[in-house]
Design goal:
By secondary structure, the protein is mainly alpha-helical. The chain has twelve helices and no strands.
Amino acid sequence: MERTRKINILLYITVAIYLAVTLCLKVFQIQLPVMLGLGLGQILVIVPTILYFVIQRTNPLQLIRFRGLKPSVVFLVILVAFLLIPVVTFINSISLLFVENEVAPVMTTLNSLPFGLGLLFIAIFPAVVEEFTFRGVYYHTYLQNGIWKGIFLSAFIFGLMHMNINQFSYAFVLGIFLALIVEATGSIFSAMLVHFIINGNSYVLSYLVSHMQTGASTSVDMIEMADMTVLPFYMLTVLFLFVVASICLFLLYLLYKQIAKISGREQYFNALCHRKIRPPYIEPTVDIYLGLAILLCIVEMIWF
């Protein structure tokens, strides 16, 4: 059986198990604490992935690139993460014009927990588990049928697995940049670092804001002003974010090229950007298992 077909079966099984557990919790009206729910979500993603390697008797090191990063590359990768934040924020601001913010209630609950514990479940676990799974297993399998096909398909799956339209919108775009940073550095560690910083930044800001003391009258005044001017003000904010994100995208392009140069992958990365790299053999990527997995995710996102 082709590797692509096997990985599509893994995706279908992962999605099916994830939705089955979610359905059971809803049917039996079991309300998990937010921290436990976040942990369960990571477990439902990583366990099938680990079992895949066990059943296939495959060493992850033979599939995924675990390459050390030079200190200079680490510094530039950190800059990449902070430049990606305005891009992600802009896309999120667009999605919030049409759907609810799915992350805010989770952050509000986690803000009442010890800081280290919240950071563990919001930033550290997702960075390791999700990058190992989506940029590691899925991307490194799909790229054998074409690097750009692997980039977009793994990013699309990464977005879908968040199971809501709000997070899908920016997770899909972020997944593209995370795959590109893997190619620029030749290491999955760079994607883990970027993922950690972006998630960690969101949590740290939310935590700090929630612990700021504000006067009751000031809060009421701000709410009243928001009721009168929220849409015009919000659209101005979106426009401002668009300008900032556009500048960040240009700087990201320059940073990616510099990172590839320092990592000894400049020629390869330039060929990748100009779509000059062709796989020697292309397996069928889309099959019934991939289609069913995508369909189940979309159903969950729209109706549940």
